[in-house]
DNA sequence: AAAACGAGCAACCGCAGGGCC
DNA sequence: AGGCCCTGCGGTTGCTCGTTT
């Protein structure tokens, strides 16, 4: 299946995005939702390929993205998940709300990998990468420990799933379980029709992201910015959030089998990632457990464990991932 | 003060998979 | 059934900025 390169046409701009381009892209997605990327360059007049537009949206402009320092807990999660899943960054990102796969990948490649290598080299025993140990362990021992962990986790998942499915009558929507997070109604995009529908808000927008780019833009082009800023109103933000909500809506409507007591999952999810410790100060509206692309309930983001048709019970994962977090403290994570 | 170096990060590239016709 | 198109993912590149020499 040969495929013509998507970005090799003349006149297709490459390189860093300008604030103006960001505004155009965001405005378009507000209106149409994040879909049909092929049409985006044509409809917006952006001299960018569709891929570039999608990437810019998912990695930077998308609401709910948290940037900057990774917390200790996030770091531990990444280390554990990388040990479990390998370099499947999208799957790992599914367990780290607000973080993009690109972000996690960069963090791993530029920081964590080196840190772990250093730790490994520092301890001549060559023990422990991500998997907890309370005493020095050889690499072979560590690998066996990891395999055992994975087997145990899988078994536990299967057991938990059977009990979960039995009690899956409470298929409350994520939106419902979190509707208290925002008193506003907002426009949702139906995942099938891509038409806006009004529902209670289940995924609040990240005005922060847009505000940030506007801020930067104003710095550069004050005149133009004031005009565009007025165009991107709070309503627009809500609208934008709704556009993104297509993801989560798709989850709740098309993944019936996944709706194993989503309230419970949501709560467990909260506890798993210790949201209270995360920084939402810049975005009070954001609902962490509902990050559209970073949600573990999303199809393509699910770990391989689901390959057997098993949904991930987070309480078990939580236990498994964090049960020896205390030991890692000793290693300086 | 300036050049060299390194780290961090945004963006690009190419492949794979799935859906549609 | 097979080809085409679109999207998602992971690896890689290259730019920017801070630090060191």
Automatic annotation (TrEMBL):
* Residue ranges of the region described as Disordered: 281-300
Q: Which UniProt keywords apply?
A: DNA-binding, Nucleus, Repeat
Instruction: Tell me which residues make up the Myb-like domain.
Output: 9-61, 62-112
Major location, coarse class? nucleus
One Pfam family of this chain? Myb_DNA-binding
Q: Where is the HTH myb-type domain?
A: 9-61, 62-116
* Cellular localisation: Nucleus
Key word Nucleus present: yes
Q: Which GO terms describe its biological process?
A: response to auxin
UniProt-listed InterPro entries: Homeodomain-like_sf (IPR009057), Myb_dom (IPR017930), Myb_TF_plants (IPR015495), SANT/Myb (IPR001005)
The protein's matches in SUPFAM superfamilies, at most eight in alphabetical order, are given as:
Homeodomain-like
Which GO cellular component terms, listed alphabetically, does the Swiss-Prot or TrEMBL entry include? nucleus
Protein name as catalogued = MYB transcription factor MYB53
